Structures
1.
Amino acid sequence: MRPRARQLKHQRGSGSVLSLVVLAASVLLYSALFLVAKVVLMQGQLQSSVDLAALAANQTLRGLNTGLPCQRARAILTINVAHLETCSIVGDETTVAGTTSVVGIVLNATATASGS
């Protein structure tokens, strides 16, 4: 009976270490999943903002809004915490590209709107 007691004595506290390792791994996994979810969500929000900016720029080009089309697109992206990269007008089409940064990751989106 003595050898068994000696074996258990050397393993004292191993359950605590194991539970701390499992807890740390869980926190790391949830943090990674949270980061991925945040990036996906922000990409969708950026695309919506760029779509809106392209539509507003096109409406301004057609005379439905006052001002300059690319300035209108810049203003909308600024309100939505994004930056205007490019704004081009070809005929009755406006193309807007915008960027934003999430935790050091740069996200890009482009949209085109045309008046018909």
2.
Amino acid sequence: MSGLYRALLDKRQTLVDEGDSIAAEAEAAGDYTEDQTARISAIEAEMGRLNSGIQAEETRRGWERSAPADEVAADGEGLPVPASTSAPTPFASFGEQMLAVMNAGKAMKTGGSVDTRLLDIQAATGASTITGQDGGFAVQTDFTSGIVARVFEVGQLAARATPRMVGPDSNSTSWNEVDETTRANGSRRGGITVTWVPEGGAATPSRPKYRLRKMSLAKAIGMYVPTSELLADATALQSFVEAEFVDELAFSLDDQMVRGPGAGVPQGILTADGTIAVAKETGQAGGTFVSANVKKMYQRLMPSSFGKAAWFINNSVWEQIWSLNEAIGTGGVPLFIPAGGLTDTPAGTLLGRPIIPIEQAEALGTKGDVILADWSQYYLLRKGSQGIQTASSIHVYFDTDEVAFRWTWRINGEPVHGTPITPYKGTTTVAPFVVLNDRS
């Protein structure tokens, strides 16, 4: 691990520990002192600087990883190291290595030789066994980072979330953040106030309120046993991994972000306390989506989210959207504006915000069929580009000449806000996530 990266992580952890200590003292006393609030504010600012530096180091590592393998590779913790001690990258593709693993399994049964490139990786990564019920070969590390990148390219929601990273030696992180549930004077940003005074006047002191947020990584495991036809062709193996398997990883993560229960898996917005569910109209027929629903959902969106939010819908909602309009006298104007006209594309905007169909949305008439969401208000916690670990076994399906490949992904997510927010004026709450309730 680079000295700078380790130093940044250590400094961040020291600040987290100090913040936890201050929070514990305030909890015992029932309030924060002025010195404590000032220090918390300073910690928050310093954490932001450190997180930027950590992200910069992780970005630099990505650049280094794209260089030729004999110049720089990556250690087990995902950072650049000299080539002499780096993990070897002898295989040109994941499919090529998978084929080598399959051949090694056959060779071990018949007494043949094993591709020495597999043994080089095994030695470099510290994997000590290739025999026994759970034995297998370690997978070349640069292939796992490619899988992560592809998941975020394919998914509809994950790439829109706000990333939070944990270091290679940790499975959780915590930080102090402002506790804001209302935008009323004296409560914004946890209680920061600005006082307008005449010359010589005194400012009103403020004591911002903070909460400690802690997130731990959850675990997703995928298992893949290639068919004998795929095992005969390295190119076909690689194609499958880069398409079907990555698609399923991306789909599963997006699905959890929508409906996950939050117990050992990401907290989905449909089950989160901070999501606003708008009731159907009086007498509204089942399986419909009407103009009044659109307007009432729109007015419950947090004002700061208007520039980033989009409508995420089930495909079955399209027919309802195409007929949405606002009555004006004997005529009306459409609420739905197709992009470039109906002959160009089925996508478009609804009250100025993009419409994005996703499979994870519920069927028409069910809560979650229409979602107005600002996904930047969702934390996605992961272990940088090395969040996916890959292992293989030549023994689980020994009798059928098959090889099992397993992916373990440490990742988690939850909405930023735990409750809807009361606006500065008025009492109708707003949120970055708004859904329409059941219409049955």
3.
Amino acid sequence: MNTLDIESHLIGSIYDAALESTLWPQVMANIVSFTQANTATFFGMDALNPDYNFVFSHNVCQQNVKEYFEEGWSHIDKKVLGGALARVGVGVASTNSVLFGSFDNYKQAVGDFYHFLKKWNMTMQAGVLLEHSPFRWVTLGIHRAEEFGDFSPQTVAFLERIAPHLRRSLQIHRKLSIYKEQHQSLHQIFNSMHTGILLLNKQGDVAYSNHAMEQLLLKYPVLDIEHTGLKALDSLKNAELQYILKDTLFAEPIPKRYGGVLTLPVNPFNHHLLLTVVPFTSLALSTNITQQVSAAIFITDSQEPNYICTQVLQKTYHLTESEIRLCESFVNSPNLEQVAITLNLSLASVRTYIKSIYQKTQQHSQAELLKFLLGLKVNFEHIR
């Protein structure tokens, strides 16, 4: 395969890994091979949702990972390298030498962390920040020893091209992880999600639709799925959709985007459906989905309510079902009087529940609780 074909296949494999996490090590191996690196890590930490923490890597031994966390190097990494990447922006790739002006400046900035990196032949680095907040940090990094020199601008550009695909795949992975403990097959998981999902075969025909998608299209008939090939009823939006689908399924247009994001208006009052199109490497996803799947479309309503990870509230903070229902209502209408009306409770009962929730989650005000709950939001994010 030529370079473009290899990159195309690698991007498809990123979305495959979003559905099946055991594929991530092979994705990391392919990235290492493509970039002439020695090691690669896809790393995420989420203080509010520790169940979402992950480390996928290639050629990184367990002793390396153990020392990284036990010696506190993860905090230095987040503060120094993560801080430098945050200054250039999420989705912007760079090398450590460029970030700090020179390799010597970088060595000075990381201090003793440099000796850890040198020990594991990871001193020359290129990376891209995929998510960043006070509570969350997700990054992709590739590394090699100093004697091999800095990574080329072409390699940095490649990391930047795959960054949005990694971010979208992470969104998909998180949505699936919420339901995996309750449902065994991918078919059951899809049908439990709030996000509408269409799976397409290589010809662009619909191979599968989940319940949420069915409800969206019944309410807002903006797509034609009954005839050959998926179409948008709005002619201008259909032209954009066909371009993205052709790009995703056949990879013919130049430049290649391998999927994308668009909106479909449903009325003139700034109400629309949001669509993310992603490619796969033609997988048979389960016995319930018999056709080979080459692409997926994830659709949400711009006016949908906020959904929060109730499993975290139950397992980590031990909230009761009644308290969880109150949190779900509060995050969408942070007014206790309105919550009382919505749940058909007295205001006194709502205040009693709130006090219990404060105690269990270590929050001290309605503003703190709202910020905490928004940190547990699991709505699908359409990343361009």
